Amino acid sequence: MMSNVYDAAYDMEKAIRNSSEFTDLKNLYDQVNADPGAKGMFDNFRQLQMTLQQKQMTGQEIAPDEMEQAQKTVALVQQHETIAKLMEAEQRLSMVIADLNRIIMKPLEDLYGAPEQ
Amino acid sequence: MMSNVYDAAYDMEKAIRNSSEFTDLKNLYDQVNADPGAKGMFDNFRQLQMTLQQKQMTGQEIAPDEMEQAQKTVALVQQHETIAKLMEAEQRLSMVIADLNRIIMKPLEDLYGAPEQ
Ligand SMILES: [Ca+2]
Ligand SMILES: [Ca+2]
């Protein structure tokens, strides 16, 4: 029985790797990384995003000028065509992965009952 | 391509549902729920666990007497044979699911690089 679960996981890993959602993302990510200007802009944005998420998760306050800085950075990266496309591709893959997680977690949800909406 | 990912997810859902880890957990959960005394004890423990987790996640302090209460409740439920087995079964399934998540997230990890250990 055990091996079936792991076999299914490896099949799914392969399916994700071959999906258009993943290959699109990979191509855009490679494009951004091949362009030092784009890469710098994107790394800067990613860093800021992680800092803000960490603050949110640990209940720290986000200062108004930090928020303003974040909004400016988002506006800037969204004007870069390849980065904007990369962010859309990330969004699409995230949605697929959220779907997959819902499907896989269905047995546990059936057992314990769905969480309140 | 898309359908392959979802097909793989449904196969995996079935594999989880048929795994001994899941069926063991389900049998123990049904046993606990069929026994009002055990069910009450387990629900009480689960409720307390969720309250403490929520506090931890939102950065709220856990009072010393709340911690003491939690430790007493854990000690109590662990003395109940079926509940103790249920908790072990939950632990085993959690470990399998963590493995599965690691396998499935491998493509993204390869793309973005592994998080720092
Ligand atoms: Ca980078
Ligand atoms: Ca219950």
Automatic annotation (TrEMBL), chains A, B:
It comes from the Bacteria. Signal peptide: none annotated. SUPFAM superfamilies: YheA/YmcA-like. Pfam families: Com_YlbF. Belongs to the UPF0342 family. This is UPF0342 protein I6J18_10110. It comes from Peribacillus psychrosaccharolyticus.
